[in-house]
Amino acid sequence: MTTHRTLILGAGAAGTAAARALAEHHDLDVTLVGRGSEEPYSRMLIKGVAVGSSAPGVTRLPLPSVRFVSDTAVSIDADVRMLGLRSGLTETYDSLIIATGSAPRQLASSVAGAAEARTTGTLTTLHSLRDALHIRRILERGPRNVLLYGGGIIAAETASLLADAGHGVTLIARSSFPGESVFGARLARSIAELHRDRVDTLFGATLAAVSHDERTVTAHLDDGSSLTGDLLIVALGTVPLSPAPWNGGILVDDRQRTTVDGVWAAGGATVHDDARGMWRIDHWEDSTAQGTHAAQHLLHVLDRGHDPGPYLPRSAFLAMIHGHVVSGVGLTAPGTTRIEPGEEFVQVHEHADGTPVGASGLDAVLSVHRWRERLHGVSTV
Ligand SMILES: Cc1cc2nc3c(=O)[nH]c(=O)nc-3n(C[C@H](O)[C@H](O)[C@H](O)COP(=O)(O)OP(=O)(O)OC[C@H]3O[C@@H](n4cnc5c(N)ncnc54)[C@H](O)[C@@H]3O)c2cc1C
Asked: Which one is the CATH code of 316-377: 2.40.50, 2.115.10, 3.30.390, 3.40.30?
């Protein structure tokens, strides 16, 4: 009998979780493929590297004891079940779990000057360890003036960390209440207030063009005004990074199966479409849970475990913003929200039929976490 060969593509949250779940099955041949140009690291921890509060080494991700191949995948041939690698080598598989994560959403091509500013390094995203090391080098020159463009969690947390480290920060966001589409209206309003107390804010402004010289960058806004700083960080959220033949996210079912036989996917690269509608979560713990789920279902198909059942998002996330804790569980994407009565600020995110699918709040970690077991109309206790 030949040994079943499983490839896991992507050595981040979801990929290492899947590998961990399979590692103890010594009768399976499991290989984790990580990008050739980097040591596997935790993307979640790169913020601290960027602002200089953590050493780059703390981001290193421990690898499960499976075969590891450090080589970027450049093609997937699902017909013959083969992965092509940048080195020219190939890896064949019986089963494949894709966990390639996400890419930062870039500025629209209509924003003149952005590409040039990017080449000089005065404009950057904060998505990779490389980005973080670049930002760190600029901030090491002493207190800098940083322009931050975006309204989501990464923009908010980065603004907070930069202010704590003594840098000047101007947070520019298109919405009057940044992050409304991420946090929900009420929470976004509270977070906007926190920003106004600690950093310069310019809300309701759109970046129209960028210009730069060797050391500074200028953001030109749609109202004709402009702002100059030492660095412009663009933090507009993420888009799924899915290898061809998938584009714009890998659609998975409730067992993390793709539409291609023998292929599962997990984490930021995936999109679910189920009773909750179309949804995607790009948080560390949820990606880990999806990776584990994909591996468990694969084991079930191979008669080595129980069916894990449908994947129901219950994972938690947490963000420190100007000394306050924004926390969430489950699916906190916009939709109907209702505020829980009580002293703490907790909002429950509901499906159209009233089923709670997520909860989020400000300085209410325990109350938010209590919702974890009550989501999706299926109790876990
Ligand atoms: C600055 C920042 C801060 C964050 N902070 C938090 C936080 O505080 N809390 C939280 O919950 N989440 C946070 N996140 C989000 C979290 O890091 C992601 O949700 C999580 O990493 C997604 O896991 P993943 O496995 O889908 O993708 P990743 O962890 O990104 O892993 C994907 C891996 O696949 C590799 N890969 C991609 N393409 C190929 C290829 N062709 N060949 C080989 N390898 C490939 C990538 O290099 C990467 O190693 C943060 C993200 C960023 C950018």
From this structure: 3.30.390
